[in-house]
Specification:
about 20% helix; eight-stranded antiparallel β-sheet; about 120 residues; sporulation; Transcriptional Co-activator pc4, Chain A
Length: about 120
């Protein structure tokens, strides 16, 4: 039976005018899809009012915690000493979201324990 991890965390949406908007997010991993991680954002953050889930390679998250890394429409990079930015690109535009690096590291370690 697959194991699912969910870790709620706070994030900050970085706007074009250099403002930061607090955004709740849920980091999700399931052993049924062991090579991926899923970042879930609430409906109010999306243009269409629907919950948004971005899925990408767990290896990208791991590489991005150490230095800039990109794959497809997702880029992950350190942002100062204690934060990491996940940049998500879609036809509608780009969203840059800053997370506490400690939260992403904790989530990654938990997913590695469950899914190897």
């Amino acid at each position: 039976m697959p194991i699912t991890l969910e870790q709620p965390t706070g994030a900050r949406l970085l706007t074009a005018d250099e403002q930061e908007v607090a955004v709740p997010a849920t980091l999700r991993y399931t052993s049924a899809d062991p090579q991926s991680v899923h970042f879930v954002f609430p409906p109010w953050i999306s243009l269409d009012g629907e919950e948004v889930t971005w899925s990408f390679a767990r290896a990208l998250l791991e590489k991005g915690l150490a230095g800039p890394a990109a794959l497809g429409n997702v880029q992950v990079r350190p942002y100062g000493d204690a934060r990491t930015v996940v940049e998500l690109r879609a036809a509608e535009g780009v969203a840059a979201i800053s997370f506490p690096t400690s939260a992403l590291s904790r989530f990654l370690l938990s997913s590695l324990r469950v899914g190897g």
